[in-house]
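call fold(seq) -> tokens
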Amino acid sequence: MKNHKKVHVKYFALLREQAGLSKETLTTDATTLKELYQELSMKYHFSLDISLVRASLNAKYQNIETFLTEGDEIVFIPPVAGG
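ret:
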């Protein structure tokens, strides 16, 4: 049985450009942050490997293997170039 859950995702910088939006609410069967990023990467053709992206779950940085639950707020943050 699938484990559908609704989550809220925000995108910044390069990921926002590649997704074509800054945030969305979606239903997913992903169980971890990593699986969700992989799902979104296939959908939006993200050019960044997951190893380069930080993830925030409910306003706290989390390990990419952290499990998702209904209503989670996720932010995927690409590396920031300074200058």
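Helices lie at 13-19, 33-44.
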